Amino acid sequence: MPRPSRSEPRNSPTGEERRRLLEILRSNQGFSEPERWVEYAWQHTFKKTLAEKLIHCPDCGAGSYTTIGQYVYYSTLARLRTCSNCGLVYSDSRIDPEVIQTHFEQSYKDEDYFRKRRRRIVRQIAHLVDRFSPRCGRALDVGGATGYQMAVVKQIRPDLEITICDVSEVACAAAASRYGFKTICGRLTTLEDIKERFHVVVMSDVIYYEPDLAGQWKLLSDLVADGGSVIIRVPNTLTPMRIVQWILRLLKPRKAAELSDRVSFFNPEHLYIFSPRFLIKRLRTTGFDTVFVLPSELPISNWKRRYLHALWYGMATAVHFLSFGQFVITPSILVVGTRRAPGLGTTSPAKQSK
User: Fold this and answer.
1) What is the pLDDT of residues 56-107, one digit of tens each?
2) Residue 1 and residue 6: Cα distance in Å, rounded?
3) How many other CB atoms are found less than 10 A from the CB of residue 94?
4) Rg of the chain (C-alpha set)
5) Max Cα separation, the chain?
6) 3-state SS class at 95
7) 43 contacts 18 by C-beta, under 8 angstroms
8) What are the start-end ranges of the E strands in the chain?
C-alpha cells in the first residue's frame, strides 16, 4: 500500500501534539476527561486560556442550579445553568477579560451595520427614548458604539443632552468627532464615578456582557433619575432553547452528549439569558415601579427576508396586544422600566410634559 503524501492533511494529531493538547485541556476550564477531547482540541486549534469557574449564581448568590447544556468558547468548556433560587440563566465560566476585550475590538460592528441591518431596531428605540424623555432631558446610551443610535434620537429630539458609554476607545472617539456627543470610555463600572443622573438610559444588547451583574443593577438604580426610565433590549430565545435541548437529551446518546460543544439558540459571547419574567421582577426590586415588555423589531438581513420580518413583527405585535402584553414571540424583546416621580405616583414626568 502506498504511503500517504506529505501534502495530504492528517486526520489525527501526532504523539507530540497529543501531549501538548492534553496539557492545554488539563489547564483550561471545564474538561474533566481531557483524553476524550484531544481530537476536538486538535481540530479547533486549542490554546491555553485563563478562565474562572462560578460556584454561585452571579445575581442572588445561591449555589443550587440545573444545567441546560454545555458549549465550547475560547478553548474553554462552559455550562449554561439555571439558578434554582432566582431563575437566572448564566454561564458558569468567565474568560480572561483581556481575551474578551481583544475579541470585541476585532469583531466590532461598523456604523453601516446599525444603519442598514438594525435600521428598524434603531428607529423603534429612538421613538421610545422620545416618549420617555422630558424636554431638555439627559439620555445615556450604554454600549452606544459610534453613536448612530443616539444620532437618530437627536434627529427626533434635538433638545436632549446625549452621553455615550462604550468599552471601545475607537468607537467613543468616532461618537465624539462625528456627532459631538459626550463620551465615557470603559465598562459599565466606569460610570460609578459620575454624579450625573439621566432621564433615560438605553442598554440595547449590552446587559448580558457585564460580569458583575449584581453591581449592574445597583449602578442602574443610581444612574436613572426619579421619574426616569431604562430601555433594555435582550434576546428572547430561552423557550426554544429549552425545547431543543430537551429533544436532544432524548435523542442523543449519553456519550455523544458529553462531547457537545454548543447550546442551541445561545450566543457563546453572552454571559446570561434573561427571561421577561426575570427582568420584570429584577427591575421592580431595583426601584422601577412600572415595567412592561414589548416585541422588538427584527434586524434586516436581505431584501427577500425584509417582508417576512415585517410580517412576523406585525403578527407578534397583534399577539402581544390581544394577550394584553402576556405573550411576546419576537426573537428579541424590549423591556422598559420607569421609576416613580415624586408627587406623580407612577406617571413619568416625560408623559406629563407632552
Assistant:
1) 999 999 999 999 999 999 999 999 999 999 999 999 999 998 898 888 777 7
2) 15
3) 18
4) 23
5) 90
6) strand
7) no
8) 51-53, 65-73, 76-83, 89-91, 93-95, 138-142, 161-166, 182-185, 198-204, 224-235, 272-273, 290-295, 332-338
Q: Are 336 and 351 a contacting pair, CB within 8 Å?
A: no
Beta carbons within 8 Å of 89's beta carbon, 6+ residues apart: 68, 80, 81, 82, 83, 238, 272, 273, 274, 275
Distance of CA 55 to the CA centre of its chain: 21
**Amino acid symbol at 156:** I
List phi, psi (to 5°) of 350: -60, -40
pLDDT digits (tens, 9 = 90+) for 285-306: 999 999 999 999 998 877 667 7
Contact between residue 208 and residue 278 where contact means Cβ atoms under 8 Å apart: no
What cell was used for 113? 451595520
* 62 contacts 86 by C-beta, under 8 angstroms: yes
CB atoms near residue 194 (< 10 Å): 14
pLDDT in tens, 162-195: 999 998 888 899 999 999 999 999 888 889 888 8
The CATH number that domain 111-235+276-352 falls under is: 3.40.50.150
Q: DSSP secondary structure string, 214-278?
A: HHHHHHHHHHEEEEEEEEEEEE--HHHHHHHHHHHHHHS-HHHHTT----TT--TT-SEE--HHH
What stretch(es) of the chain map to CATH 3.40.50.150? 111-235+276-352
CA 143-125-187 angle, 5° bins? 10
